[in-house]
Amino acid sequence: MSKQSYDSKWLMGLYRRMVLIRQFEDRVKYLFLEGIMPGTIHQSQGQEACGVGVCAALEHDDVITTTHRPHGDCIAKGLDVGDMMAELFGKSTGCCKGKGGSMHMGDLSKGVVPAVAIVGGGLPLTTGMALAFKMRKEKRVAVGFMGDGATNEGAFHEAVNMAAIWDLPALFVVQNNLYGASTPVKMVVKTPNISDRAAAYGIPGVTIDGNDVLAVFETAKEAVSRARAGKGPTLIELLTYRITGHSRRDPCLYQPEEERKQALVNEPIGRFAKVLLARGAADQKALDAVLEDVKAEVEAAVTKAMADPEPLPEDTLKDMFV
Amino acid sequence: MSERRLGIVEALKEGIVEEMRRDPRVFLIGEDIGIPGGWGGAFTVTLGLEKEFGERMVNTPISEAGLMGAALGAAIMGMRPIADVQYADFLFCAMDQVANQVAKMRYMSGGKLEVPMVMRAPVGVTGRGAQHAQMMEPYFVPLPGIKIVCPATAYDAKGLLKAAVRDGNPVLMFEHKLLYGSKGARAETGTVDASSDIPDGDYTVPIGKGVIRRQGTDVTIIANLLMMHRAMHAAEALEKEGISAEVIDPRSLVPFDWDLVKESVAKTGRVVTVEESPRRGGLGAEIAATLAEEMIDFLVAPVKRVAAPDTPAPFSPPMEKFYVPDAVRIAQAARDLMAIS
Question: pTM (2 decimals)?
């Protein structure tokens, strides 16, 4: 547990963002199960500390790529939940004007590349963005988020190796939620830790508790400093757990019951609430107020998104070429 | 204005140099580039450029997916990469990056992102068998989101390259190994002269505009890259028989210059399409279907496709000769059409 002292307001900012992700995801899940929202979803309940902790170490003009499970990372980097909700409803007001949907959520003005829903597919882009920063001698950093499954893709190897040989300002962040869809990671990775793979590229690799938002922040901060100093990329493995299905209507029968129970005890928001109380950064009333405030923000996003205009069918033909 | 006679390799190199001098965002990324004493890519196009552009020549590991994805990442951050693979066949290794990421990124973003990148890829059935000598255009023509150009002359190679660099969209340039005019150790046997008089000043060739290589009134032959040169030979032979063939080089496959083709078909009423790639699902099929939909009243004979068989490219010279359409087959197709009416 972090011994660092932090500004209470800043700590509460982290907390609010994590709660916002949870409430957004829970509300979206409900909308799906009610059949109100189109498409499919991959959600991130339980993994909130990963995106929030890493993005707290970034500046506004740093950039991230995320995955088919992008909502949490997007909110963590500062996307507006109203723009996101409209996108999920396929409205023309969405952050991708209804052309992206859940799996391609993003807004580069906030530093989020439209999410790449091919496992591992965003990592070469991360390397390329970092290459651009290095070529232009900018002090910006590119972060490639991925799940544990992505580390078995060829794109992971190519992207991390290239970033390593050129000492690019990049972070490769694995949110290891222990399952690639329904397959336990231990069945498909031989090394004790995924971060052990960093040795193959000659870069630092670290495995930490991904449900401890301050530990995530501090680890990311060090890697970001290293990247900005021109010392190259870091592979960070965040151990976490998905306390919802892989996609909609997944009952998670492959997750042992005891493991699931333990995961609920270990989930990051409740844990961080205890830290905030223990540090005296907030009292229960303040935490409750955050929850109410966030619920209102999400509900306003839903109301607005549902009332927003649908795209015209022929808008399909727009946005192909400059 | 003075002119110089250049082959495609020299013309491409000149176009690249001019664009890199003009715009500091332009950089090269590829395999075996920028290595002193190296090759300048597989066909010498970038040979020696490291002297002027050292840090702007990013020599990658053998990682086609990685380098295409990296070019995309740099492009959306405001750079203008020219990415190349040594053989177009290797685009399959990069297919997720090219087809899922490069082609779709702008659309998925709701038009908010620009993806200004050029991809260069050598094609041509050229004595290397199935995996280093296939034509790749048919795999990309149906893919929304990428422009495709196919220069058959040095003039077009330079002009299209410069237009591609300045375009805000991904542009894939297929270059033919037998048209390069590569010299020294990288020279090709069976090379066809594709050299042009290159003007000294700056010029571009517009993407999406075809060109009539030879005027004619009886039959329209549509062919690009090496096939354009063979179609010209066929047209010369036909002329001696009193058949006037018009040869159209589309130059760009996406967007395709339908206006030029339709204007010609309205005049001739007969069409031969020529492809170095397998017939099934090819560009000839697309042209035939479109003309059947939109120009049926003008056609006096069915559209005739001259294409490679539906097999991989073979290695052995006699089989390769059988595989690739030549002037004799193209001329015969035109004669067959003249015989119909």
Answer: 0.96
